[in-house]
Amino acid sequence: QAQLVESGGGLVQAGGSLRLSCAASGRTASRDAMGWFRQAPGKEREFVASIFWSGGFTYYADSVKGRFTISRGNAKNTVYLQMNSLKPEDTAVYYCAAGGVTTLRADYWGQGTQVTVSS
Predict the structure, then answer these.
(1) Distance CA 71, CA 53 (A)
(2) Of 19, 42, 90, 98, which alpha carbon lies 20 to 30 A from 81's?
(3) Would you list the DSSP string of the chain?
(4) How many CA atoms lie within 13 A of 51 on its CB side?
(5) Phi and psi for 88 in degrees, rounded to 5?
(6) How far apart are CA 8 and CA 4, in angstroms?
(7) What's the pLDDT score for residue 99?
């Protein structure tokens, strides 16, 4: 079983920045990639970004391209999400994901961290 712990959420004004961190421990079925998803009130969980350990390839949802950057730590068990130019519509609970990560699913999830962007 894998454990994922997010940190770095909070309240920020529109146009501001936040950096989320996710630390993974334990066993994961597939450590080929990690990613971030988010869920806004009344909406389904949606893909935000992912990064593959091999080659460092990154993928982003169209809604965050050019504003968010996903990166990995040297220890291969940490992933970050730098969020710039935040908008009120970015308000959501952000979840770290690992194991078989695609834009639609993952095997393991963190507990989530709240990001609130005020207008």
Answers:
(1) 10
(2) 42
(3) -EEEEEE--EEEETT--EEEEEEEEE--S--SEEEEEEE-TTS--EEEEEEETTTT-EEE-TTTTTTEEEEE-TTSSEEEEEE-S--GGG-EEEEEEESS--SS--SEE---EEEEEE-
(4) 17
(5) -55, -35
(6) 14
(7) 84
CB 110 within 8 A of CB 6: yes
Which residue is it, tokens 């989530």? 112
Distance separating alpha carbons of residues 98 and 101, to the nearest angstrom: 6
Is residue 105 pLDDT above 80, yes or no? yes
CA 36, distance to chain mean position in Å, is 2
pLDDT of residue 2: 80
